[in-house]
Amino acid sequence: MFNSLSGRFLVLTIVFVMLAEVFIFVPSIARFREDYLLERLERAQLASLALETDAFIEPELVTELLKNAEVYNVVLRRNEVRQLVLSSPIPFPVMATYDMRDTSSWELIRDAMATLVAKDQQVIRVIGTPVQGGGLLIEITTPQMPLRAAMLEYGRNVLWLSLVISVITAALLFFAVRFLLVRPIKRLVDQMDRYAAAPEDARKIIEPTSKVRELYVAELALQKMESQLTGALRQKDRLAQLGGAVAKVSHDLRNILTSAQLFTDRIEGSEDPLVKRMAPKLVGSISRAVNLCETTLAFGRVEEPQPTLARLPLSGLVDELLEGERLASGEAEVSFVDEVPADMIVRADGEQIFRVLSNLLRNARQAIMATRQPGTVTIRGYEDDTAWWIEVADTGPGLPKRARENLFKPFEGGARKGGSGLGLVIAGDLIRGHGGRLELGKTDETGTTFVIHLPKADLALQPIEAAKA
User: Fold this and answer.
1) Where are the bilayer-spanning segments (predicted)?
2) Distance in angstroms (rounded) separating the CA atoms of residues 151 and 154
3) Which residues contact 332 (CB under 8 A, 6 or more apart)?
């Protein structure tokens, strides 16, 4: 039980209540001692009134009066005259004098603690003010041990009462905590276990019902987390199914393209000048399509090949890409600007860089065509001592907010209606395979710029370079 939240709360409640009672006990025992001594002063004053009625009192009566008052002698001061009213032998010397007329709380607590620790038989002198104007001062001598015994009995009574109160209070709080806090938490944990058993089932997502504000906030957070996880699992299943379908399509498409590749070999032998000019581009496009299908199949088997790095003249690759984009733009007023230096050579995998730049240029062209306004797509390249930089910029409308927030997430970062957002995801993965990064340079109403960073030296790529050497 003590390992549970409610059990520990029970123990802590008892401890804290007892600790509070200790702080209450100290001043209360001091007050008890003060009341005890003031009562002895009153009794002594009442005993001394016997002299007012009879000047001569039998010794036996004096002894009885002092015994009832629990004092050894009584001294009254009237009109500045100190008078021993009642007296009897004092068995022990007077060890301390306490003036009750003007005593601070601290002094009362100090004297009470001194009385509690006293061990020997002692006689104390107590001074006070008579009640009902019975004089200027009253002074008594009384034994201290009866006072100590009364204080100890009072302390034991307070201790037992405090213990009973603390146990009752702790028990009430124990059941209150179990009902108001532990049971809702247990229900929350049980719901989490039920959800964990079937996280794909949306019916298992928690519905916040707690009336405790903190627990309600926790349930809301859990509901959001479970909804996101269920969505992610569903998307994972869809991606797995899509991956299987793509693998099958890529397999069949590869066979079809392989057959088409055989026919292009014959086309290359044609004497038609237009066919001679277009045939190499057709062969290159079909070869790339076959390579893409094979790469897709390898990716489906978690066998995405590492980039084969080589010295690549970037300008020739860009010329080929821009020519294809100009044809794809048709009658749209899209201008393409090539700012890649003719002598710029990068270290990269030609096929993978072609796929990356093709995705970026196509996205830029489609962004401008969607506006039905003239626009410009610019590709530029430059380098420094540590890296090559390639930028693809357009003068389109910029990326929408949803696309910016989910830029490199599959099926979420598409900027066009119906777009999957896979292009940027694939491009980013390919650039990371080169040890570089693909970043969004800027996007606003004046256009969008993507930046490719390819490092000139990367430890992860050194083994490939060594292998090539």
Assistant:
1) 6-30, 158-181
2) 5
3) 368, 369
